[in-house]
Fold:
Amino acid sequence: MNSQLCRRALPRNTPAASCVRRACIFFPTFLLCVSLAAYAQKANIDPGLIAHEWGTFTSIAGESGQAVEWLPLNDPSDLPGFVEHFRGTGFKVGLGGTIRMETPVLYFYSTHDTTVDVSVSFLHGLITEWYPHATHIEPSSSLTNVVLFQRQSSGSISWKSVSVQTTARPLNTAFPQDARPSHYYAARNTNSSPLQLSTQNGDESEKFLFYRGVSVVPAPLAALVLRNGQVEAMNQSSAEVPKLILFERRGEKIGFREVNTLREGAILDPPILDASLALESLLSDFEAALISSGLYPEEAHAMLESWKDSWFEEGSRLIYIVPSSFVEKTLPLSLEPQPAAIHRVFVGRMELLTPATRNAIETAVAANDKVTLAKYGRFLGPMIESILRKATDPVRTVQLNEALQQIYVSYVAQNQLR
Structure:
């Protein structure tokens, strides 16, 4: 309806004509506002920008199957010296949590030079490490009661005005290096656009934005170890788990069982261990699953290169692709402008105290076999604590307590050196 039609349809000096004339003015104005709003929304999307992210959520299954809070008391720093830490390098080692968010790396791919504002929030968690230098960290390092904050609030990190440059024009400064080896560097082996930030200490450059953290939220998966050695995996997310692997290693022998889609739950028999079984086939299959979930091939390969030594080490665990709905709820990401596409792929690791692992640890403790105990790394302390809760043999209890005390002493010594 236009204004001429309004004038012709009704007499001028009637209430009906007045209402119609107001409608004729209102609706075109309304449509114009809607069009402008839609245009503004579209203008906020950069069609030449793509963001990809991968990371891990690590947890330990308790006796009930739920993820338990744990302290990685013997966890040395595996990060380069240029990475920043919340309250120093030893802080996270003593910070309890049900989930340890490890090595999320956020890549950008751009057809043109641009800048992006990035903000990530971690539900009931703290951001504990990051690089490059962040514009803002919440909470601040001056917070006194970190544990209370962790349970009641959400930690966050933001980077403002991240310079995203095309790969055709490399940055003027080289990416930072550290003298000691680290799995951190494997994440650089992609075709992502170089990034640069201007900080108070000068320009910092990297191939990605990196951060880690600890949270007390429940894990998306629960795992109950049954008496016969079977493992009942239970999906606690509202969405299906795209890929699940029950993996076990005992020395040179490995075994695994796979579930391609876990909707509610599944009971898995203990894997059959075989020294001749090749790990390469499992790696290739899992890499394909990461690609199917949204990662580029070089990203999926970089992720496996970063974590394969840890995921497939001594012991038993569930390795799974985390439902994207859990990632978005637990780790909401905000980008300004919005990329044309965003893919976030996280892998979950849930460590299991199976009868075989329990027996191996108890035997090693009794024999003071430090080589075997070292294979369980940062999970050794929490597992000994779990074994102690059911220990009935007085001699074995003393041995386990002594082993745990040695872990605490080592932990204190490590932090004094930092």
